[in-house]
Amino acid sequence: MKPIDKKNTGAIDRSPSPGILALLYFVLFAGGMIFNLVGTSGASFPTPYDPVQKAQVYYQQYHAIIQVHSFFIFWSSLPLGIYTAFFTSRLSNMGVHRGGLNIAVFGGFGASIFIALSGLCTWILSQPFITDEPGTTRAIQLLGFTTGGTGNVVLSGLLIAGISVTAGLARLLPKWLMWSGLILAAISVLSMLNMVFPRLSILLPIGRFPGIIWMIFAGFKLKKERLLKSPA
Fold first, then answer.
1. If pLDDT is split at 50, 70 and 90, which confidence band does 218 have?
2. DSSP string covering 103-118
3. Taking the model in full, what pTM does it have?
4. How crowded is residue 86: how many other Cβ atoms within 10 Å of its Cβ?
5. From 193's CA, which of 94, 125, 153, 200 has a CA 20 to 30 Å away?
6. Is 71 exposed, middle or buried (0-12, 13-18, 19+ CB in 10 A)?
């Protein structure tokens, strides 16, 4: 077996693994959900499809718990945005400049902004007197749901799709990660149909949680060095 020619080897990226950031994103997001579940003793979280009165009672009764939960949601947006920057920067530094890279940047930063907006909407709902009016409660609740649910999951799907195609074709990710990423990306993007068909909201958690786990694996599995083909 011939030794690898250093001239045909890309620069080695010695920055921390993006997987650490994806793991932090998961810990913050899941930690907020667990805190909310424990703090409310497992009370059913109101969705936009429930009567608005249920939301009013919930946010008024558990306003202190919701306030902390909103903190977790907002801060989870930071590692997601930094993950996007680190991952795409590493690909770019290794000479990968496919169109999928721009799709990943657009999707990742968009998903980060949307989850941050959702956290801020949740914080507003935790404030006194905000939920006294049914119309105000419903409007802010819908904004928080569409940004943190549909908006975040769909754009996360674009992030995963862009990474899968770009890093997969460059052989910087295993094939199983590339193909599983494309499947998860398709599910995430299709979840936008819940805006027309509410029953398809089930696609949101299917796209979200396996998608975050995929990002963790991709971050740790991404190679730090790209082998370039020898000239013919």
1. very high
2. HHHHHHHHHHHHHHHH
3. 0.89
4. 22
5. 125
6. middle
